[in-house]
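Progress report, Aim 2. The chain analyzed during this reporting quarter is listed below.
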Amino acid sequence: MKVLCIGGTGTISSACTALAAERGIELFLLNRGQTQVAVPAEVRLLTGDINEDRAGVEALLKKHSFDVVVDWIAFTVDQVERDIEIFSGRTDQYVFISSASAYQKPITHHRITEATPLTNPFWQYSRDKIACEERLMLEYRERGFPMTIVRPSHTYGPTSLPTAVGGGPTVVARMRAGKKVIVHGDGESLWVMTHNSDFAKAFVGLLGHPKSIGHAFQITSDEVLTWNQIYASIGRACGAEVQMVHIPSDLIDHFDPTTGAGLLGDKACSVVFDNSKVRELVPGYVATVPFARGVEQSIAWLDAEPTRLQVDAEKDMMMDRIIAAHEKAWS
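Predicted structure tokens for the chain:
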């Protein structure tokens, strides 16, 4: 099977690249060639910027046809439209990476399936993903474009540390310095963290699968945690006593609308994902990396190179301002 990945070296995609190569898939990565991420020796690299130089990329791909094309970096309808034009009639499967944040907000039921409606008034990122899905579904229905949609949720890996407010390195630095860290709400909302190596097992199983055409699939872990448990695991992994401050998401949004959109439109909601659909096509899919172990890998990676633990001064000061405002309101 010959597969083209547009991107392929990000947090989620790098694990999928490694597993696809391990399974003997003939894999091509198209990207700008600026990443420092190592890729398996057997993977062929194509250098080009599909967003800035479409003509150059089309010339680069002119001699190729692919069984599967995966676009890891499409975020808008214009980008999906371009992909439809380039790859119609040139691939048996086009995989679009959407987002589980596209699911209905505010939620009406905590258990999420692929049948859950798509709507998100809080986060533009999610609305753009919804619009992309709708365009692809229309192209599939009217012209048979062989698309598959995949919806990851909060996926992390050894080189990333997932948090809700402030960013991983900054949160770790605050914990180790004895400073307070923000946990949205009361910290008891339910959330799912998925290790990228687990995601890859289900994702690679969908590549080239004829029954996946025309369908959307979510891929997550089945481990459900509260945010209090998530931050406690981070604290244990970095050897710090965690001082959590529970702050309403609306207040965080008031001071930091960028973070607030990702909370109100995604992470502040209690969700449990049902992975039954992907298991029908990838039998035996099981996520095997618990967050407590995965986060230890993330902390070890951060500690291996001092520059990785650099504090984001702007985010650090923003957290101080939000905490001060919250404490003043209660004084």
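The chain has two domains: 2-155+193-219, 161-192+223-271+291-330. Residues 124-143 form the longest helix (20 residues). These observations will guide the mutagenesis work planned for the next reporting period.
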